[in-house]
């Protein structure tokens, strides 16, 4: 009976990447079953059921050698005591038959919730400005308290982006050049997106891919996908459990 439940969970396309810890969480937190994680691991191993693993991505943004970067206000301390204190942002790219497709996203580090994103066929500054505008609209930053951490890409060191930060009361922050650990949460998010959406099929058009990414973020990643760092809760569920209702948007 337990193995059938495990097989049913793993048959769901959205849970195909789940390894034994998340499958165990789905059984206990999602279905209310009492079962030991080691038993779930053993049954999955014996049945040849395993999660998927993503490959490291290549760099998308290119630094501007003449730009003056923001100071690093994070120093890899991504754990926060509440929402709206630290936002992370980055860009990824992928190919379609129409050509390259780009996505910029903004994450609240507290809950790993994606609060803003934008997709386009270019890498101009508008791409990151659109993602930031969505984040600001959905979750107005705490003036002079919310940090936005990024890499040294030309989009993030541009005059327009700096003006948008200052106008919104956000504090800009940047890690060291070429070090993925300085924005590790965003790297992890892109890896999950790549594994669960981008690499799952061949994409004919950018619109097809954009629609799939929109559906994955809004209907799966934020409200339902379990995160090990959140006690196997989804970002929205975690916020509801740990944030006063007036502060959750």
Descriptive account of the structure:
40% of the residues lie in helices and 15% in strands. It is of the alpha/beta class. The chain folds into two domains: 2-47; 86-247, Nucleotidyltransferase, domain 5 (2-Layer Sandwich). Strands 3-2-1-4-5 form a five-stranded mixed β-sheet, with helices on both faces. A hairpin with a 2-residue loop joins strand 1 and strand 2 (99-108). Helix 2 packs across helix 3 and helix 4 (125-138) packs parallel to helix 6.
From the structure above, extract its key features.
single chain, 249 residues, alpha/beta, Nucleotidyltransferase, domain 5, 40% helix, 15% strand
Low-confidence stretches: none
Give the helices and strands as they follow along the chain: HHHEEEHEHHEHHH
Strand order of the largest sheet: 3-2-1-4-5
Determine the structural class based on helices, strands and strand pairing. alpha/beta
Specify the CATH architecture of the largest domain: 2-Layer Sandwich
How many domains? 2
CATH homologous superfamily descriptor of the largest domain: Ribonuclease H-like superfamily/Ribonuclease H
> Can you tell me the overall shape?
globular
Proportion in β-strands: 5-15%
CATH topology title of the largest domain: Nucleotidyltransferase, domain 5
Largest sheet: 5 strands, mixed
Put simply, the count of helices is: 9
Rounded to an integer in angstroms, the radius of gyration calculated over CA atoms is 19 Å
